[in-house]
Design goal:
Elements lengths: L2 H19 L6 E2 L2 H4 L7 E3 L2 E8 L4 H14 L5 E8 L4 E4 L2 H23 L14 H7 L10
Parallel strand pairs: 3-4
Antiparallel strand pairs: 1-2, 2-3, 4-5
């Protein structure tokens, strides 16, 4: 790999790290010396192994396979993600559908818990007028008639 390609790769890794800082303030590009052993992602963020690639035309499957291989080699539990960009194209993230669905489910669970905290779900039963928790609502339904059947 030539010097220009290395500079382009480093610049893209910094760009990716800066993008992630909006959500993960501690996001940072991993130093090259740490990555040479293949035991560190290109960008460090919680829960994810980020492999960053910017080329004229990125082979997304190959970039993702590299992320998976490095996660396995490092015996890591991080979710492998390939963050890629073709010249003149958008920055894209690739991950397994199973990991994506798990993330969506976790996000929904957090949103449900947060909305309970924010809105306090002051749902009172007719019989005893007591404050019901989110667990009660999930088990009994919002009106105490059992779970909603859709």
């Amino acid at each position: 790999m030539g010097a220009m390609q290395r500079r382009k790769g480093k610049a893209f890794e910094r760009t990716v790290a800066n993008l992630f800082k909006e959500v993960f303030p501690g996001a940072k590009r991993t130093l090259t010396q740490q990555r040479d052993s293949g035991e560190a992602p290109d960008v460090e963020i919680p829960n994810f192994w980020i492999e960053a690639k910017a080329h004229k035309r990125v082979n997304i499957q190959k970039a993702f396979a590299q992320a998976v291989d490095e996660v396995l080699r490092a015996k890591s539990s991080l979710v492998p993600v390939a963050v890629t960009k073709d010249n003149g194209g958008e920055i894209m993230a690739t991950l397994r559908v199973a990991d994506f669905l798990r993330l969506l489910a976790e996000k929904e669970e957090v949103l449900k818990k947060n909305s309970v905290l924010v809105m306090q779900y002051n749902v009172l039963t007719k019989e005893n007028r007591e404050l019901r928790t989110a667990d009660d609502i999930g088990r009994d339904g919002p009106f105490g008639l059992g779970p909603l059947k859709l």
